[in-house]
Each structure stands twice: as C-alpha cells, then as structure tokens.
Amino acid sequence: MYFVRTAGEHDLEKVRALLVESFHATYDSLHGRAKVADLIAHLFSPAALKTRLVRKDAEFLVADDGRNIGGMGYAAMSQQLTKTVMLHLLYVGPALQRQGIGRDIFAELETCFPDAEIMRLEVEPQNAAAIAFYLTHGFTEIGRNENSEAGQSGIPALVLEKRLAG
Fold it and tell me: Could you count the other beta carbons within 10 Å of the beta carbon of residue 134?
C-alpha cells in the first residue's frame, strides 16, 4: 500500500532512481537512450531535484510504502500565467503503473494550490498512456509547444489544461 506524502531531502536519491527508470522506460524508444540520458542529467541532477524540493510555491510529493518510492509528482505555480499551476512531473515506477498510484498523487496535487484556477501541463505527443491518463482526469488539449528555443529540449509537446474546483 502506497501513501502519498510531501517529499523530503532524504527521498531525493530514491526519487532520482525512479525518474531515471521511468524516463528510460517511457522515452528511449521515442528519442533514443543517449538523448534521454542527456535529459535526465539536466533535469534530474541532485541539485535540480533539491531546487524543486525547496521552492516555496510548489509541491513535491512521493508515494511511499515504507520501503520504496513508487511514484512522484511535482507542481508549481506558474511565474507567467495568473492563477495557473504547472504540473511538471508525475511518474510512477514502470512495474507499479495502473495500480492507482498516479491517480492518488494527482488527486493530492489538485488540492495543494487553493489560489489556482487552472492546472496546465505539457506531454510528449507520442506518450499515449500519459495522454489517456490526463484526458481521463479532466484535461483538454489547448495547443502545442515546439520547445525549439535556446536551452529547450527540441521535443514538441502537447499542452493540456484542466479547470480546478474553486
């Protein structure tokens, strides 16, 4: 049984391992192992994870069974968009998917931002399982981001949004 809780610094090594495994399982076939490894090195370095953990207008959650971290979620208030929370990360270990862990993390994240009216995320257009999950949970597609500017991945993304209960 996994329980959702706020992550602590002591969780970051296990969170990073979960993200490495999940990213390779999800994206290697789409973008190649080397590109995925580069993304992981940039996005999930210990310093990058710690920066997310200590951000004041954000929530960093884990699903924990007392021994293992089975999933994680990270969302933060948008710096550009009013009353909008950005869902940056929602990953469940490949062997634990489709057991409700992602749903439970997502449900908790929805309640963490009382001033937000909209939740927005970007998802890889070829990640059919993630798109189906988000559509099932009330998101609609509102556009695309080509991520082609300097410092971006160059990997296009669908932009999805959901109105939050106010």
Answer: 23
Distances (CA, A) of 19 to 38, 94, 112: 13, 10, 22
Contact 33, 49 (CB under 8 A): no
Tokens representing residue 67 in the block: 């021994």
Which of 105, 145, 106, 139 minimizes the C-alpha distance to 125? Answer: 145
pTM value? 0.91
Judge contact between 95 and 142, C-beta under 8 A: no
108 vs 7: CA distance, rounded Å: 13
List pLDDT tens digits, range 55-109: 999 999 999 999 999 999 999 999 888 899 999 999 999 998 889 999 999 999 9
> What is the spatial distance between Cα 45 and Cα 13, in angstroms, rounded to a whole number?
10
Among residues of the chain, what percentage have pLDDT more than 70? 95
3-state SS assignment for residue 52 = helix
